[in-house]
Amino acid sequence: MKHNNMKSIRIIILGFIFSAICALAFGQAPKESAIQAMNTIDYNYFQKHLTFLASDELKGRDTGSEGYALAAEYVTDEFKTNGLLPFGDNQTYYQHVGFAERIIDKKSVVFKSSLNDKTVKAVYGKNITLLSSQKYANVNDTQEIAFVGYGNIIPDENINDYEGIDVKGKTVIIALGGPNGMKNNDFFNLEAKAKNAQKNGATGIILFYPKKALQKIIFKNIHGFISSAMLSLTDSAFSGASLSDDFDFKIAGMAKLDFLEDVFKLNGLKLKKELKNISKGNNSSQLLRSKFACKFDVIFKQKDCKNVVALLPGTDPKLKNEYVVVSAHLDHVGVGKTIKGDSIYNGMWDNATGSAAVLSLSKAIKEMPKGTKRSIIFVCYTGEEKGLLGSKYFASKTKINDGKIVANLNVDMLAALFETTDVIPLGYNHSNLSEAVDYAVKPLNLVVDNNLQEEKEYFSRSDQMSFIQQGVPALNIGNGYTAKNSKINAKKEVDKWMKKSYHSPFDDLNQDYSPEAFLTFMKLYYLATYYTANEMNEIKWNPESKYYKKYVLKEKKVTAHK
After folding, report:
1. 242, 272, 301 — which closes off a domain?
2. Are 377 and 324 contacting, i.e. CB atoms less than 8 angstroms apart?
3. Cis bond leading into 351, ω under 30°?
4. What is the pLDDT of residue 57?
5. What total number of domains does the chain contain?
6. Residue 349 sits in the same domain as residue 478
7. Residue ranges of the alpha helices (H) in 82-158?
8. Residue 175 in 3-state DSSP?
């Protein structure tokens, strides 16, 4: 009897072991298959696309330009070749996006501050730059001025720079940042500063960087962006691209220290003294006696462009109605100021790499023997450089019958220009898409740097944010700061590139870059996409995520209230 019992127990144990082995084998088989398929990704295929998309022929792929149209046609042809289905308007690969373009007539700009018989004039592009608005065809306005320090209202820090001052109908002058020794993300949140000004009744806003270091480069970058043609979505459901579209400021822009120092001197004040005061946390908000006079004309015209969209249908009867979006922006900034004989801003790293990677991923994933359980939408956006406009339109306007978008994996500036041993997955903390990252890094011998500071600085600045705002979890997996070559200081090199090459003619195919790094990150995105589309159960938010609380819970409360 005892012997029989022991025999039965052995059989049961062996049965469990066999079942476990089978479960492990069959459970791991698709993953091992995916890893093997990942190794078939052809770098030369990627390089071919990168070479074309970053070529001088496309003239920097500016939104709505002929160069962008050629790039969109190229991407469409590749989607077709790769056997993907059209998923744009009217069974095409194009989702048409309408823009209203506007640009300030530079010759018409007058900006000055006057008191009694004395006047201080600014020079457009030298020490003053201005935002145009789709609300005003021209501006000719004179407003009183108020200095409100850093323009912050942060109750938790007991900060209110508007306390004791009436700014209704006035232009507020605001320094970027906050008091020394205090750390708060809102100190550099331009949207928060603008909201504070608007809530207090200001009708104008002039921002400035309060330190002389980096004055030239910060002003140059801001002016280069807002003095070029600005775009707004013509669809009435969208608010626009810029600060002056989202807020009703007739006067909005940025000044340099030299001009504002003269304005304060005109009012019998020393700006340097006031800045020293607010840097200590003191309130120095006050009305100035002089006024700002601002005048300029705006040139308007309509412009049409398109997102390029393709579909790989899922194979699972239920999960095929859940759609994973794999995306990158196709546009760059076009032709700009000539620097060392070159005026074409090719945008090789930003973001020909991302678009070329999407094409490579679409080919590799389509060739998977058993397909993917969830459906995958591959999309290359327009208008990212104009305020995430193409992705904003796509995420808001794409309606799927009997289905929904459940995740976004966005590729913006693929990998680094050199190999790293770590990755920084922006969005890692906000949903269980972190599982896809954890799965993807292991076979590639990479580690995750959950860099919260990097996320705070960059996560809201790329197309994944358009999905976050629609309540869809998203990731953007960026390079880390530990270079494989120990002689390279990765953070220092990236910062140097940002200063020298970002949005310049030097971001082209002539710069040094690492094919190995690009290939590794394509494999990384491949595995993350595979895992998201095939292995994950329900894709869901981290309930503690600030984005979940802001864009999902808030929406649920609004809907319930209605």
Report:
1. 301
2. yes
3. yes
4. 98
5. 2
6. yes
7. none
8. strand
Candidate from 27-41, 173-187, 305-319, 458-472 with smallest mean pLDDT: 27-41
Q: Which of 301, 328, 345 is the last residue of a domain?
A: 301
Please enumerate in sequence order all residues whose Cβ is within 8 A of that of 185, keeping only pairs 6 or more positions apart, or say none: 456
- Contact of 60 with 344, CB cutoff 8 Å: yes
Q: Where are the alpha helices (DSSP H) in 82-189?
A: none
What is the C-alpha separation between 71 and 354, in angstroms, rounded? 13
**pLDDT greater at residue 406 or residue 232:** 406
Distance of CA 194 to the CA centre of its chain: 20
Relative orientation angle of helices 43-53 and 515-530, to the nearest 10 degrees: 110
Q: Are residues 477 and 341 in the same domain?
A: yes
The H or E element that residue 17 is part of is helix 2-38
Which CATH number fits the domain that encloses residue 127?
A: 3.50.30.30
260 token code pair: 């504002």
Tell me 541's DSSP state: B
Please report which confidence band the pLDDT of residue 225 belongs to, taking 50, 70 and 90 as the band edges: confident
| Residue 24: inside a domain | no
**Do 470 and 548 belong to one domain?**
yes
Q: Which domain holds residue 161?
A: 105-301
pLDDT above 90 (res 182): no
Residue carrying the six token digits 């019958």 = 401
- Which DSSP state fits 230? E
Q: Are 264 and 271 in contact (CB under 8 A)?
A: yes
pLDDT value of position 363: 96
Q: Helices 43-53 and 353-366 sit at what angle, rounded to 10 degrees?
A: 140
CA dist., res. 282 & res. 178, Å (int): 11
At 396, list the tokens.
């808001």
What CA–CA distance (Å, rounded) separates 43 from 522?
A: 9
Query: Can you tell me the mean pLDDT for 315-331?
Result: 97
Cβ neighbour number for residue 414 with a 10 Å cutoff: 30
- pLDDT for the residue 188: 78
| Domain harbouring 328, CATH code | 3.40.630.10
Give CA–CA dist 312/388, Å, rounded: 24
Q: Give the Cα separation of 15 and 36 in Å (integer).
A: 31
Contacts 24+ apart (CB under 8 A), 67-72: 67/334, 68/305, 68/330, 68/331, 68/382, 71/330, 71/355, 72/306, 72/308, 72/330, 72/380, 72/382
- Strand (E) or helix (H) holding 208: strand 204-208
Q: Is the pLDDT of residue 15 over 50?
A: no
Q: Is residue 209 domain-shared with residue 133, that is, in the same domain?
A: yes
The H or E element containing residue 10 is: helix 2-38
Cβ atoms of residues 541 and 468 within 8 Å: no
> What are 119's strand-pairing partners?
114
Average pLDDT over every residue of 33-43: 85
Between strands 286-312 and 342-345, the pairing is: unpaired
Q: Which residues pair with 326 in a beta bridge?
A: 378, 409
Phi and psi, residue 498, nearest 5°: -60, -40
Distance CA 60, CA 334 (A): 4
Cα–Cα dist 380/378, whole Å: 7
Task: Provide the 8-state DSSP code for 229.
Answer: -
